[in-house]
Structure formats: C-alpha cells, structure tokens
Amino acid sequence: MYAVADLSGAHINPAITAGLAAVGRFPWRMVPAYVAAQLTGGLLAALVNWAIFPHLREPLILGSTQPGPGVVWWRACFTEFVITLVLMVVVMATAVYQRSPGGAVESGVAIGLWVGAAIFLALPISGGSL
Q1: Taking the mean position of all CA atoms in its chain, how far away is CA 119?
Q2: β strands within the chain, DSSP E
Q3: Terminal C-alpha separation, the chain
Q4: Which pLDDT band, with edges at 50, 70 and 90, does 66 fall under?
Q5: Whole-angstrom Cα distance, residue 73 to residue 66?
Q6: How far apart (Å, rounded) are the C-alpha atoms in residues 99 and 28?
Q7: What is the largest CA-CA distance in the chain?
Q8: Is 128 strand, coil or helix?
Q9: Is residue 65 a contact partner of residue 79, using CB atoms and an 8 Å limit?
Q10: Long-range Cβ pairs for the range 8-16 (8 Å, 24+)
Q11: Which burial class, exposed, middle or buried, applies to 30 when counting CB atoms under 10 A from its CB (0-12, 13-18, 19+)?
Q12: Could you give the C-alpha distances from 44 to 5, 31, 78, in angstroms and in order?
C-alpha cells in the first residue's frame, strides 16, 4: 500500500474504488479505468503464478480461489462479501475519515493486518481472495 499510495491512492481492490466513489472521495469518471487496471493486474499476477509454478498449474488454476472442499458456492460468496465489507470499513475508518486515529501513516498497517487476517479466516471457506 505504501509503495503505490502516491501513484494511485493504493486502490488495489475494485470494491474499494467503487466504495470510495460512492461516498464522494473518488471521481466516478475514473472508476472504469481503475477497475480495468486492477483486473489487468490480477490477470497478470495469475499468469506470473502460472509461469513460476508450472508443476502446480492444474491445482492453482492460474492462482484463482475457489470454495473449500464441501463448501457450497453461496457460503463462499457470502464469506467474501463479509470480509470485503469489513475491509471497506477499515479503509473508511483509517484512510478516509478525517479524524481517524493515527492519521494516514497507520492506515496501511491497519488495512494490511485486516487483509492478512481476512485471508487466513476465509482460506478454508472461500480461498480468501477479498
């Protein structure tokens, strides 16, 4: 987040871009370009996984996440919805809100801690892709 915050505002997740636009903190006219760049970045990352780990191409499915064994699709989708919703709350409370505790410097730590925790929490259910 700290590496790209000055370039793009650290919008790595399309849900964050749309959420920030919805509350008036990001211009709607820039949302399509940002989402296209985010999806392109995700696809390129998947292709890099595919190139680096040729012996795992079949189980990795280009690095995509999928429900865990025995988990129905709607439970995985709901899990992703909830962890992304909490991510949005963390971003809004730390990086956007003017009176956020600690200011913007600590927001990267708070957001990173939630992303890490969310991945570990959701890994067996949905793959934790946020």
Answers
A1: 10
A2: none
A3: 15
A4: confident
A5: 9
A6: 24
A7: 49
A8: coil
A9: no
A10: 8/34, 8/37, 10/95, 10/108, 11/38, 12/38, 12/41, 13/38, 13/84, 13/87, 13/130, 14/38, 14/39, 15/84, 15/87, 15/88, 15/130, 16/87, 16/88, 16/91
A11: middle
A12: 20, 20, 26
In this prediction, residues 65-82 reach a mean pLDDT of: 92
Token code pair at residue 64: 């995509």
Cα gap 26→80, rounded to integer Å: 23
Of all residues in the chain, what percent are helix, strand and coil, respectively (each to 5)? Answer: 70, 0, 30
Structure tokens at 96: 């956007």
Whether the per-residue pLDDT at 94 is higher than 90: the answer is no
What pLDDT does residue 5 have? 67
Cβ-Cβ contacts under 8 Å for 109 (sequence gap 6 or more): none
Q: In this structure, what are the phi and psi dihedrals at residue 11, rounded to the nearest 5 degrees?
A: -80, 95
Please check the confidence at residue 102 and state whether its pLDDT lies above 90: no
pLDDT at position 39: 92
Q: What residue type is assigned to position 80 of the chain?
A: E
